[in-house]
């Protein structure tokens, strides 16, 4: 069990361990006291929480199998856990037997995918994060107003494919500062930029600055596209990074916001930073000469995986854990409409969304 202290807030996080080798890491001496700075917020955001519950509830309501297009969220532990419960993950709707239930992932889909599902008479449950849907609506609206859209995002990311699909004729992908220098537009006076929700805030603003130097009339999105969860996790790791000899970011390699946390840690003073899916990936040599370890996790990571990291670090002498809180999150999105009632017809407590006092880092998997 790990003890987390943060001034008045003391929590004993007692969650079951993942099966893993114990005592792998040795408690070797270093100059200075060993400690962990634990970022908060970290882990599950409201969109991921909603999407995972949607699959679980669909399995409860309709029975196995429930098909899911792409990974419901970008985390291998979450995906394998849902697979064990009866979810079948597919790349596209044409792999799904006609008439089956299919869940669209938190990253969203383009209208072509929705049409493909309808053509196969699939019963679709849309777990697209509402903050991704917001960007879809912006893309549709600006395209109708004849704007050209510069979408800042990563090539091949599912969210980018889904957003581009809402305005395919009007959208140009800008992958970063290099693209900003070369992108060719039709009418520089009728131009707006939008972005993927999980980018580095600093790098995105650098890209926008370069675009605006070339296109001074470039319009901003009506509100931030980079979501609250991505921004909050970056702010938290920025606070810790200058004091950290090593930062460990828990999350999967295909999770954009997780990978950005490694970049942000390094850009803000962490001596080294590594991403791991599981605690068992932490290498002894990463801890050589390390006094302070920063720990955080991406927005699709259940808390149990962070606890496993803390327990292994405690084995190596890093049992003193201080939580560094830069924001409190209590947002909760309502479930997809098909799942707002329970099997007995009673309303699900998540039917209306809103705010909850249960904070992300207090919630186990
Ligand atoms: S990271 Fe942001 S956009 Fe993505 S699911 Fe979470 S809240 Fe939604």
CATH architecture of the largest domain: 3-Layer(aba) Sandwich
| Radius of gyration from the alpha-carbon trace, in angstroms | 21 Å
C-alpha end-to-end distance: 15 Å
Q: Tell me, rounded to a whole number, the average pLDDT.
A: 91
Outline the biggest β-sheet.
7 strands, mixed
CATH homologous superfamily title of the largest domain: 4-hydroxy-3-methylbut-2-enyl diphosphate reductase, catalytic domain
List all distinct small molecules, including ions and cofactors, that are bound in this structure. Answer: iron/sulfur cluster
Shape: globular
The number of helical segments is 10
Please count the beta strands (DSSP E, at least 2 residues each): 16
Strand order of the largest sheet: 2-1-14-3-13-11-12
How many structural domains does the protein architecture include?
Answer: 3
CATH fold naming of the largest domain: Cobalt-precorrin-4 Transmethylase, domain 1
Derived from helix and strand composition plus strand pairing, the structural class reads alpha/beta
CATH class of the largest domain: Alpha Beta
The residue ranges in which pLDDT falls below 50 over 5 or more consecutive positions are 1-17
Q: Give the percentage of residues in beta strands.
A: 15-25%
**DSSP helix fraction:** 25-40%
Sequence of secondary-structure elements:
EEEHEHEEHEHEHEHEHHEHEEHEEE
């Amino acid at each position: 069990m790990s003890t987390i202290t943060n001034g008045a807030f003391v929590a004993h996080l007692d969650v079951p361990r993942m099966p893993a080798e114990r005592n792998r890491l040795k408690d070797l001496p270093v100059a200075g006291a060993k400690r962990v700075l634990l970022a908060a917020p970290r882990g599950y955001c409201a969109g991921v929480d909603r999407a995972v519950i949607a699959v679980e509830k669909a399995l409860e309501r309709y029975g196995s199998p429930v098909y899911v297009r792409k990974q419901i969220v970008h985390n291998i532990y979450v995906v394998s856990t849902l697979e064990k419960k009866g979810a079948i993950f597919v790349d596209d709707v044409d792999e799904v037997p006609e008439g089956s239930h299919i869940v669209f992932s938190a990253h969203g889909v383009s209208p072509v995918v929705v049409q493909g599902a309808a053509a196969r008479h699939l019963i679709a449950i849309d777990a697209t994060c509402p903050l991704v849907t917001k960007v879809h609506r912006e893309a549709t609206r600006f395209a109708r107003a004849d704007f050209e859209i510069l979408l800042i995002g990563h090539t091949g990311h599912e969210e980018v494919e889904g957003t581009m699909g809402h305005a395919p004729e009007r959208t140009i992908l800008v992958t970063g500062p290099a693209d900003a220098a070369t992108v060719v537009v039709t009418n520089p006076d009728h131009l707006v930029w939008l972005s993927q929700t999980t980018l580095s805030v600093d790098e995105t603003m650098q890209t926008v600055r370069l675009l605006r130097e070339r296109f001074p009339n470039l319009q901003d999105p009506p509100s931030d596209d980079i979501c609250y969860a991505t921004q909050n996790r970056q702010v938290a790791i920025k606070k810790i990074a200058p004091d950290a000899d090593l930062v460990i970011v828990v999350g999967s390699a295909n999770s954009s916001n997780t990978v950005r946390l490694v970049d942000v840690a390094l850009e803000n003073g962490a001596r080294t930073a590594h991403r791991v899916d599981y605690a068992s990936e932490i290498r002894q040599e990463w801890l050589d000469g390390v006094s302070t370890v920063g720990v955080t996790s991406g927005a699709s990571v259940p808390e149990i995986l962070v606890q496993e990291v803390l327990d292994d670090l405690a084995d190596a002498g890093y049992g003193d854990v201080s939580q560094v809180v830069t924001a409190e999150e209590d947002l909760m999105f309502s479930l997809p409409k098909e799942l707002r009632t329970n099997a007995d017809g009673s309303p699900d407590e998540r039917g209306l969304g809103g705010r909850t006092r249960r904070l992300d880092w207090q919630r186990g998997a």
